[in-house]
Amino acid sequence: MKKKLLAALLALGVLASLTACGGKQETQQDAAADGDTGYADSINILVYPDYVSEDVLAAFEQEYGIQVNITYLSYEEDNITRVETGDDFDIINPCQETVHQMLQENLLQKIDKSKIPNLANLYDEFNTYDYPGEEDYSVPYMCGSMSIIVNKDTCPIEITKWSDLADPALKGQIVSTDIDRRFVATTLAENGFDPNSENQADLDAVFDWLCQFNSNVKVYDNGAPRTSLENGDCSVAFTYTTDYVLVKQEDPDGNYELITLPDGWYSRGEWMLAIPASSTKAEEAELLINYIHDAKNYADNVMKYPGVPVNEACIAYLTDEYKELFKAFDIPESANFFTLSSLSSESLEMYDLFISNVMASSNS
To answer: Quick one: which of 3, 50, 124, 218 has the fewest CB in 10 Å?
Structure first.
């Protein structure tokens, strides 16, 4: 991430003054204990694994008497397909591009942000939207980027550039999140093409490389790719930067390295919280979103499941240990950045077919 954000975390003199929003009230706790809060008994949320602290959710349940039922996402598209098929969710966890797509299909409802005063805690730079007019339909939650992690004891080559991921020496050595549009966009950018290209010829130009990468992948894992490093099944992981922080915590004796690509291409992924149009529990959903963005609650969450915080007020509650680990999220100033833009429905279908063909290529 940008060095100015890291500096904000590490500098002692720039901690944000906290806005005391959404404080706990004894009357709410008493009402929850009596089972008479006026709220629904439960809400259902669809989120990524290692994103929302179960401890924070348990504290919310105790505070408001609302049970939180968690379902974990396997793929980004689950946000769309599970809502489309009628699954009952009150909060979902899409990225900004998915929010845009879901709004085109009328799958989200407006959020009453006056019910979420803790949004005042957000960094201005994250409280922005790639698609104007959509700010009423989602709330920033967490930010991060994708990274390459290697086990220095077992990786057969030195990885210094993106193209190394397709080196035949890595056959059967890689664990990766799925090849998705963001992965293809990075590959396009690394090869001199527009990362948001709607040109089939551009995709065709990187097809063979992607097929070679696919042949090097031993396992695709969108949940916790780091586990294949920890158990020795793979020596390279293309995964969330969060996984590097977690693997260093879980296996401190392992010889892991986060690969930085000084001239590489990176995209900042911003994941949101949104309320499906079908939800009848918007009030409870807004209450939980506000609770999550309480400064201390957010800090507790981000220290359990590390990511780039979008909540500025949480900084005062982060430990020195976490601030040190946070350095892993710093991206070289010389790196190149791109943002995924909206594509036409025809181009989205083109990408879907293209990715399907890559995934169907032989990895025997």
So the answer is: 124
- Alpha-carbon torsion angle 34, 274, 4, 322, nearest 10: 40
Residue 135 β-bridge partners:
none
Give which of 175, 313, 326 is closest to 246, Cα–Cα.
326
Decide the pairing of beta strands 236-240 and 139-144: unpaired
Taken in order 19, 22, 27, 33, is the CA torsion positive or negative? negative
Tokens of 242: 């969060």
- Which residue do the tokens 């989602």 mark? 138
Q: Is 77 helix (H, G, I), strand (E, B) or coil?
A: coil
What is the model's pLDDT at position 35?
56
Give tens-digit pLDDT for 315-342: 999 999 888 877 777 777 888 988 888 7
Q: For residue 338, give the H/E element and its range.
A: strand 336-338
DSSP assignment letter at 199: -
User: Using 50, 70 and 90 to split pLDDT, how confident is the model at 34?
Assistant: low
197, 198, 204, 205 alpha-carbon torsion, rounded to 10°: -20
**Alpha-carbon distance 200 to 72, whole Å?**
34
Residues 21, 117 contacting (CB under 8 angstroms): yes
H runs (alpha helix) in 85-237: 96-104, 181-190, 200-205, 207-216, 226-230
Q: What is the pTM of this model?
A: 0.74
Pairing, β 308-309 against β 67-72: unpaired
